[in-house]
Design a protein that fits this description.
single chain; alpha+beta; Jelly Rolls; eight-stranded antiparallel β-sheet; 13 strands; 15% helix
Amino acid sequence: MAKQFGIALVALALLAGSVQAQTANNQLTAAEKSAGWQLLFDGTSTKGWHTYNKKTISDAWRVDDGTLHLDASKRTSAGAGDIDTRDEFRNFDLKMQWKISKAGNSGIIFLVHESPKFEDSYETGPEMQVLDNKDADDGKNYKHHAGDLYDLIPSNSESIVHGVGEWNDVEIKLYHGKLDFYMNGKHTVSTTLWTAQWNALVKGSKFAKMPAFATFKSGHIDLQDHGHDVWYRNIKIKKL
């Protein structure tokens, strides 16, 4: 009886731990709060986000079971548009989770500048690619895979990225130009912005025709509308 009771207690403890893990999404621990982390998505609303170059946000971006979900079925002919944080960030540590639909494409763009001069966010900010590597059209380009510094540096994420419908943990660190990407616990990209080497990378990319690309030293965090369903959660940032 004692043994069975002990097993039951262990089972309850495991269940409690599982429930706690499930309910901990979009929350900060006491340690994270003390360290200066802040949530960019509260899990219940789109507060703090707006469509790029607008003050409102499209209905296609909605809260769905604790996620920030781009519902492609709700997009108009003009699209839903990328969404930006209210605040701008210069030196930061950004973490979040994403999952993508089959053949889906999206991206996490940063140092984004809003101005009527620019039609799209990617004209101003670099991007960590979000992609279904297997079936998305962009998967044909080795610098357009999930986790890549889009069109600039490949992350070789094929053995790291989780597939369609599975969550991926990503992190972007930027400190005085030093840029590092992480995916599912692996360090995948490292470079330094605004150097001669960086300028050469940009010159050899699609961004060479965009003179404002990656020239701003601070900017918004941007989630891309590429026409496919994508989900984000646990979006948090710490200023460095």
